[in-house]
Amino acid sequence: MKFTPTAILPVIATLPFAAGCSSTVASIDPAKYDRMSCAELNSALGDTATDISRTAISRGKVANTSVPSWLLGGERVKTVVANRDTARIEKLQQQQQAIVATRKQRCPSSQ
Asked: Could you give the 3-state DSSP secondary structure of residue 65?
């Protein structure tokens, strides 16, 4: 397969947009979870796990993207996007830990 500038340009053009979307994690507010029922906590835990998986898949795709050598800064963009996804995963894991702690404290069936 031969890579041409016109074939790769659309892929590279979308990387900055993907980078912007990956940094939309809200701050963690443990008090928010104190007001949730056990069913809502379970749902939030599942949603968080789904987001972690989705972000990890995205990070893997970005990390395995082959950037042509003629594209200046392409490797740097790839690294920045992967690092943002890693930071998002870490934030989601903290959020997940807060949900699990609240769930253990309030929901007897989760212990």
From this structure: coil
